[in-house]
Amino acid sequence: MRYRLGVDVGGTFTDVLLLEETTGTTFRAKTPSTPADQSIGVLNGIAKVCAEAEIEPSEIGQVLHGTTVATNAILQGRGARVGLVTTDGFRQVLQIARSFVPGGLAGWIIWPKPEPLAALENTVEVVGRLAADGSEITPLDEEQARAQLRRLAGAGIEALTISLINSYANDAHEKQVAAWAESELPGIPISISSQVLPEMREYERTLTTVANSYVQPEVSRYVRNLDRSLQEKGITAPLSILRSDGGLVQSAKAAESPVSLLLSGPAGGVTGAVWFAEQAGYTDFLTFDMGGTSTDVALVLGGEPRIGRETKVGDLAVRATSVDVRTVGAGGGSIAHVPELTKALRVGPQSAGADPGPAAYGNGGTEPTVTDANVVLGYLPAALAGGEVSLDVDASRTAVATIADAIGLGSPEEAASGIVDIVNENMFGALRLVSVQQGYDPRDFALVSFGGAGPLHANALGRLTGAWPVIVPPSPGVLCAYGDATTCVRDESARTMIRAFSDTDDAELRTALAELATSAAARLSAEGVPTEQQTAKYQVDLRYQGQGFEIPVDLDASALESGDLLSTLGAAFDTEHERLFSFLLKNEREVINLRVTVSGPRPDVAFQPLEEGGEDPSAALVSTNDVWMDGEYAKAGIYDRAKLLAGNVVEGPAVITEMDSTTLVLSGHAATVHSSASLLIAPR
């Protein structure tokens, strides 16, 4: 037997899923996250799931991990002290930045500008200059450059970024400075912009490379520690890390380019959602991943997640390929509060996290959270995670009652209903960002819900968006780990090539794209993926001449082989531009960047359809419970999901429980069990 182990570390829980490839049998575990050292929670989960499966850790063939280490380093300001080497005259590139201030009309008054990840006192200039076409204008001055590097060594930097003007067109100067840095700053990790982001725009290229340096020591330490701990537990399987774009990369390479891991965790959920939605027969859908701290949403079209060229974490926005995920601070642990000034109920973004957690957990938490509201409303059973977490209903009522008192409501139930309504609206706003604001009508999509808290709110989100059916995969609380275990190895090559359509031809574009594909394929082959099992996807960034931004246009292999490449690109660009902005221009089109992603094969995981059982779900009925719905109490059936069979129809109001999550079916709706074991919720 061959086992694949998927691991996803969240803000509250660490999810582990063990998958036996030949039968599709899964074993799962959910353990509290350990923020001080994430590897502790990971190892606890692995030990637990191996014991459940009755296997030795040495039988695991692959370990596939979605991590938030890089993300947390950015959010918590725990990154390295970064030194930055720039071209003479560009020392303040990070301070000048871009003329964008968030927060509306008066944002510039109240917005606290974040400090750059590389301080000005740790930024030096070197003499030497390249032109935009890569030709040398001024040669490097070795003596001056070494003196500047020695200055950084004396400043005690922990990581070094080298970002020189126009290095995307010629990396010779950056490589030379890196060679000198290796002798002047031994042991210091070095990131050069022509490798991290070989594209135009010096600010974005510099910022992205500095971010890579900022998180590199932290990620490297974590990967080394986890690798060593796995070895000590008898797991000799290779460790792979999930990239932000949903592909896997070997741990050593991930440590070299950690900026590609900033959305590693959310990408795993989207990848898992694609797998289960395909089994249920849906390829166009929105994803809704609600955990304990935050909610991530994305859009999938034709079975492919939309990929963005910007990754945003907190105030930091870097140019890195990632699944186009939007995040809001709304989770099961989000704290409800009533500001003294406005007396208006708010929910989040503050979270009770894993420690102390919601009041219902009985770990000392006293503030009212979304989880407490669901407990008060009767939507959550008395125990979570298969009975491992008991809920304190009285503590939840006491916590939520403080909200009722603060805003003058008559009962904790009314306050709890208000908390749930507000958090649902917050998440609805995030879903609009990836659908309506991108030119898509959510009513044309299904909605795939997962995460520990997602299925509790999924039916309500379906009602708000009009996206039907709402699909709740099996084991939704560990779906991110399932995505980690069912995705493929991936690599990417990119290049800036600024050409007006009239200044290039099909042959030049085809040659450049082929070179990028060859480069990425070679790196994938080095990781053990046979060439015949590799597939390439092509993307070209286009704009009208004079525009200050580009639109990525996907290009399939058949179009690349056809003789009318520019016409195909132009037509696709016009379609996308009109969808986004509702107009076209007569300006000439212009090629800006080329990008090729090469992927290995998806794992061949067996699928076993669920046994047929007819429409009657009564064999899975465990009990009934009073739930507060539509302003009054109603009787709801409590169902054990493990006992539901294909074809069963659960009519709301109902609560469907399982080890890692709970699904709420509202009045006037019904959940049909699909043969893939997913629940399909729709209005009756």
Automatic annotation (TrEMBL):
Keyword Hydrolase listed: yes
UniProt domain Acetophenone carboxylase-like C-terminal: residue ranges: 507-672
GO terms assigned for molecular function: N-methylhydantoinase (ATP-hydrolyzing) activity
Cross-referenced SUPFAM superfamilies: Actin-like ATPase domain
All residue ranges annotated as the Hydantoinase A/oxoprolinase domain in the record: 205-490
Residues in Hydantoinase/oxoprolinase N-terminal domain copies: 4-184
Enzyme class: hydrolase
EC number(s) recorded for this UniProt protein: 3.5.2.14
Family annotation (InterPro entries): ACX-like_C, ATPase_NBD, Hydant_A_N, Hydantoinase_A, Oxoprolinase-like
Keywords noted in UniProt: Hydrolase
Lineage top rank: taxon: Bacteria
Record PANTHER family: 5-OXOPROLINASE RELATED, HYPOTHETICAL 5-OXOPROLINASE (EUROFUNG)-RELATED
Name this polypeptide is given: N-methylhydantoinase A
Organism of origin: Rhodococcoides corynebacterioides
Upper classification of the organism: Bacteria, Bacillati, Actinomycetota, Actinomycetes, Mycobacteriales
